Amino acid sequence: MLKESMIAGEMDWEYLRKRITLPPRDIALEVAVMLAKRVPGNVIEFGVYNGDSTRTLRRAMGGSEKQIFACDSFAGLTEKYENAEVGTFACEPPRIRGVQIVKGFFEDSLTPELAKRVGRVALASLDADLYSSTLCALNWLTPLLGTGSLLLFDEFLGEKESEKRAFEEWSVATGIRTVKVAEFLRDPSGWGNTMDARPLFQVVSAEILPGSEEPPTPSLRKRLLATPLGRLARTAGNSLRRMGQD
After folding, report:
1. Exposed/middle/buried for 120, CB within 10 Å: 0-12, 13-18, 19+?
2. Is the pTM here over 0.70, yes or no?
Protein backbone atom coordinates (compact mmCIF):
# COMPACT_ATOMS: atom_id res chain seq x y z
CA MET A 1 0.00 0.00 0.00
CA LEU A 2 1.09 3.57 -0.63
CA LYS A 3 1.91 5.53 2.48
CA GLU A 4 -0.66 8.20 3.32
CA SER A 5 2.13 10.76 3.57
CA MET A 6 2.91 10.57 -0.16
CA ILE A 7 1.86 13.80 -1.86
CA ALA A 8 2.41 15.57 -5.18
CA GLY A 9 6.08 15.66 -6.09
CA GLU A 10 7.15 12.73 -3.92
CA MET A 11 6.74 10.02 -6.56
CA ASP A 12 8.17 9.85 -10.04
CA TRP A 13 5.71 10.65 -12.80
CA GLU A 14 6.84 7.75 -14.97
CA TYR A 15 5.75 5.41 -12.19
CA LEU A 16 2.43 7.14 -11.51
CA ARG A 17 1.22 7.99 -15.02
CA LYS A 18 -0.09 4.46 -15.68
CA ARG A 19 -1.53 3.99 -12.21
CA ILE A 20 -3.67 7.04 -11.44
CA THR A 21 -6.36 9.19 -13.07
CA LEU A 22 -6.03 12.95 -12.71
CA PRO A 23 -8.80 15.55 -13.07
CA PRO A 24 -8.48 17.64 -16.27
CA ARG A 25 -7.71 21.33 -16.00
CA ASP A 26 -11.27 22.22 -16.99
CA ILE A 27 -12.49 20.78 -13.69
CA ALA A 28 -10.23 23.05 -11.64
CA LEU A 29 -11.31 26.10 -13.63
CA GLU A 30 -15.01 25.24 -13.39
CA VAL A 31 -14.82 24.75 -9.62
CA ALA A 32 -13.01 28.08 -9.24
CA VAL A 33 -15.66 29.87 -11.31
CA MET A 34 -18.48 28.20 -9.37
CA LEU A 35 -17.03 29.53 -6.09
CA ALA A 36 -16.33 32.96 -7.61
CA LYS A 37 -19.91 33.58 -8.71
CA ARG A 38 -20.98 34.81 -5.28
CA VAL A 39 -17.83 36.93 -4.84
CA PRO A 40 -17.97 40.57 -5.98
CA GLY A 41 -15.69 41.46 -8.87
CA ASN A 42 -14.40 40.31 -12.24
CA VAL A 43 -12.22 37.46 -13.54
CA ILE A 44 -8.64 37.83 -14.76
CA GLU A 45 -6.24 35.31 -16.25
CA PHE A 46 -2.45 35.55 -16.33
CA GLY A 47 -1.01 33.28 -19.01
CA VAL A 48 -3.36 32.68 -21.92
CA TYR A 49 -1.41 30.92 -24.71
CA ASN A 50 -3.96 29.74 -27.32
CA GLY A 51 -6.98 30.59 -25.17
CA ASP A 52 -8.21 27.08 -24.27
CA SER A 53 -8.38 27.89 -20.54
CA THR A 54 -9.89 31.31 -21.28
CA ARG A 55 -12.70 29.67 -23.24
CA THR A 56 -13.34 27.33 -20.33
CA LEU A 57 -13.61 30.31 -17.98
CA ARG A 58 -16.05 32.07 -20.30
CA ARG A 59 -18.17 28.95 -20.75
CA ALA A 60 -18.26 28.28 -17.00
CA MET A 61 -19.31 31.88 -16.31
CA GLY A 62 -22.54 31.26 -18.21
CA GLY A 63 -24.75 34.34 -18.13
CA SER A 64 -22.78 36.06 -15.38
CA GLU A 65 -22.22 39.82 -15.70
CA LYS A 66 -18.60 39.45 -14.57
CA GLN A 67 -16.03 40.62 -17.11
CA ILE A 68 -13.07 38.44 -18.14
CA PHE A 69 -9.60 39.87 -18.76
CA ALA A 70 -6.84 37.69 -20.26
CA CYS A 71 -3.21 38.82 -19.95
CA ASP A 72 -0.23 37.43 -21.86
CA SER A 73 2.77 38.64 -23.85
CA PHE A 74 2.09 35.95 -26.48
CA ALA A 75 5.86 36.01 -27.05
CA GLY A 76 6.45 32.74 -25.21
CA LEU A 77 8.66 31.96 -22.23
CA THR A 78 11.40 34.48 -21.50
CA GLU A 79 13.32 31.88 -19.48
CA LYS A 80 13.74 28.13 -19.75
CA TYR A 81 11.10 26.32 -17.70
CA GLU A 82 11.94 22.72 -16.82
CA ASN A 83 12.22 21.11 -20.28
CA ALA A 84 10.44 23.93 -22.10
CA GLU A 85 12.82 26.22 -24.00
CA VAL A 86 12.75 30.02 -24.26
CA GLY A 87 10.02 31.05 -26.70
CA THR A 88 7.79 28.06 -25.98
CA PHE A 89 4.08 29.00 -26.01
CA ALA A 90 4.57 31.91 -28.43
CA CYS A 91 1.45 32.42 -30.55
CA GLU A 92 -0.98 34.97 -31.91
CA PRO A 93 -3.52 36.30 -29.40
CA PRO A 94 -6.79 34.35 -29.61
CA ARG A 95 -10.03 36.07 -30.46
CA ILE A 96 -12.64 35.15 -27.88
CA ARG A 97 -16.00 36.86 -27.77
CA GLY A 98 -16.69 38.58 -24.46
CA VAL A 99 -13.04 38.45 -23.32
CA GLN A 100 -10.77 41.50 -23.11
CA ILE A 101 -7.26 40.47 -24.24
CA VAL A 102 -4.39 42.39 -22.62
CA LYS A 103 -1.22 41.89 -24.68
CA GLY A 104 2.24 42.63 -23.30
CA PHE A 105 4.78 41.57 -20.73
CA PHE A 106 3.29 41.92 -17.25
CA GLU A 107 5.75 44.59 -16.10
CA ASP A 108 4.49 46.76 -18.98
CA SER A 109 0.84 45.78 -19.36
CA LEU A 110 -0.27 45.57 -15.72
CA THR A 111 -0.81 49.28 -15.25
CA PRO A 112 -2.85 51.44 -12.86
CA GLU A 113 -5.17 52.18 -15.79
CA LEU A 114 -5.83 48.47 -16.28
CA ALA A 115 -6.48 48.10 -12.55
CA LYS A 116 -9.21 50.75 -12.82
CA ARG A 117 -10.81 48.85 -15.72
CA VAL A 118 -10.67 45.52 -13.93
CA GLY A 119 -11.81 46.75 -10.52
CA ARG A 120 -12.25 44.25 -7.76
CA VAL A 121 -11.17 40.70 -8.64
CA ALA A 122 -13.37 37.71 -7.80
CA LEU A 123 -11.06 35.15 -9.45
CA ALA A 124 -7.48 35.29 -10.70
CA SER A 125 -6.21 32.30 -12.67
CA LEU A 126 -2.40 32.34 -12.54
CA ASP A 127 -0.63 30.34 -15.23
CA ALA A 128 2.46 32.53 -15.55
CA ASP A 129 4.89 29.63 -15.00
CA LEU A 130 7.87 31.77 -13.95
CA TYR A 131 8.62 33.07 -10.46
CA SER A 132 9.18 36.65 -11.67
CA SER A 133 6.00 36.76 -13.74
CA THR A 134 3.87 35.25 -10.97
CA LEU A 135 5.20 37.67 -8.37
CA CYS A 136 4.61 40.61 -10.73
CA ALA A 137 0.97 39.54 -11.24
CA LEU A 138 0.36 39.02 -7.52
CA ASN A 139 1.83 42.40 -6.57
CA TRP A 140 -0.39 44.13 -9.14
CA LEU A 141 -3.44 42.21 -7.90
CA THR A 142 -2.97 43.11 -4.23
CA PRO A 143 -5.21 46.24 -4.03
CA LEU A 144 -7.90 44.53 -6.13
CA LEU A 145 -8.45 41.63 -3.72
CA GLY A 146 -10.96 41.33 -0.90
CA THR A 147 -12.67 38.67 1.18
CA GLY A 148 -13.61 35.76 -1.03
CA SER A 149 -11.23 36.61 -3.90
CA LEU A 150 -9.91 33.36 -5.37
CA LEU A 151 -6.39 32.59 -6.61
CA LEU A 152 -5.98 29.50 -8.78
CA PHE A 153 -2.44 28.41 -9.67
CA ASP A 154 -1.74 26.12 -12.59
CA GLU A 155 1.72 24.68 -11.84
CA PHE A 156 2.43 25.37 -8.18
CA LEU A 157 5.34 22.96 -7.83
CA GLY A 158 6.98 23.17 -11.27
CA GLU A 159 10.50 24.51 -11.98
CA LYS A 160 11.76 24.52 -8.38
CA GLU A 161 8.31 25.55 -7.09
CA SER A 162 8.39 28.89 -8.92
CA GLU A 163 4.71 29.80 -8.42
CA LYS A 164 4.74 28.52 -4.84
CA ARG A 165 7.79 30.59 -3.93
CA ALA A 166 6.25 33.70 -5.46
CA PHE A 167 2.96 33.13 -3.61
CA GLU A 168 4.66 32.55 -0.25
CA GLU A 169 6.91 35.60 -0.64
CA TRP A 170 3.91 37.74 -1.61
CA SER A 171 1.86 36.45 1.33
CA VAL A 172 4.58 37.41 3.81
CA ALA A 173 5.22 40.81 2.21
CA THR A 174 1.54 41.86 2.02
CA GLY A 175 0.14 40.11 5.08
CA ILE A 176 -2.86 38.97 3.05
CA ARG A 177 -4.39 35.87 4.59
CA THR A 178 -5.63 33.03 2.42
CA VAL A 179 -7.13 29.61 2.93
CA LYS A 180 -6.56 26.71 0.54
CA VAL A 181 -10.09 25.59 -0.32
CA ALA A 182 -9.19 22.99 -2.97
CA GLU A 183 -6.28 21.33 -4.72
CA PHE A 184 -6.10 19.32 -7.94
CA LEU A 185 -3.12 17.11 -8.71
CA ARG A 186 -1.83 17.32 -12.26
CA ASP A 187 0.76 15.94 -14.63
CA PRO A 188 4.23 17.58 -14.66
CA SER A 189 4.33 21.11 -16.01
CA GLY A 190 7.06 21.97 -18.50
CA TRP A 191 7.34 18.27 -19.33
CA GLY A 192 9.20 17.56 -16.11
CA ASN A 193 9.36 14.31 -14.16
CA THR A 194 7.46 14.96 -10.92
CA MET A 195 3.81 15.48 -10.05
CA ASP A 196 2.49 19.01 -9.92
CA ALA A 197 -0.61 20.62 -8.40
CA ARG A 198 -3.30 23.24 -9.01
CA PRO A 199 -4.19 24.73 -5.61
CA LEU A 200 -7.09 27.15 -5.14
CA PHE A 201 -6.75 29.77 -2.40
CA GLN A 202 -9.38 32.18 -1.07
CA VAL A 203 -8.66 35.52 0.58
CA VAL A 204 -9.93 35.99 4.14
CA SER A 205 -10.37 39.30 5.97
CA ALA A 206 -12.69 41.00 8.45
CA GLU A 207 -15.13 41.71 5.63
CA ILE A 208 -17.86 39.12 5.01
CA LEU A 209 -19.25 37.94 1.70
CA PRO A 210 -22.61 39.27 0.51
CA GLY A 211 -25.44 37.04 1.62
CA SER A 212 -23.40 35.58 4.48
CA GLU A 213 -25.10 37.58 7.24
CA GLU A 214 -26.54 35.42 10.00
CA PRO A 215 -30.36 35.56 10.10
CA PRO A 216 -31.71 37.06 13.33
CA THR A 217 -32.07 34.43 16.04
CA PRO A 218 -35.72 34.13 17.17
CA SER A 219 -36.35 34.70 20.86
CA LEU A 220 -36.75 31.72 23.21
CA ARG A 221 -40.47 32.46 23.55
CA LYS A 222 -40.98 32.38 19.78
CA ARG A 223 -38.99 29.16 19.45
CA LEU A 224 -41.10 27.52 22.19
CA LEU A 225 -44.37 28.69 20.66
CA ALA A 226 -43.29 27.17 17.32
CA THR A 227 -43.10 23.66 18.83
CA PRO A 228 -46.21 21.36 18.86
CA LEU A 229 -46.56 21.82 22.62
CA GLY A 230 -46.24 25.58 22.24
CA ARG A 231 -48.92 25.68 19.56
CA LEU A 232 -51.22 23.66 21.85
CA ALA A 233 -50.59 26.06 24.74
CA ARG A 234 -51.28 29.04 22.49
CA THR A 235 -54.59 27.49 21.33
CA ALA A 236 -55.59 26.78 24.94
CA GLY A 237 -54.72 30.33 25.97
CA ASN A 238 -56.85 31.79 23.19
CA SER A 239 -59.80 29.60 24.25
CA LEU A 240 -59.52 30.74 27.89
CA ARG A 241 -59.41 34.39 26.83
CA ARG A 242 -62.59 33.96 24.75
CA MET A 243 -64.33 32.25 27.69
CA GLY A 244 -63.43 35.18 29.95
CA GLN A 245 -65.01 37.62 27.51
CA ASP A 246 -68.33 35.78 27.41
Report:
1. middle
2. yes
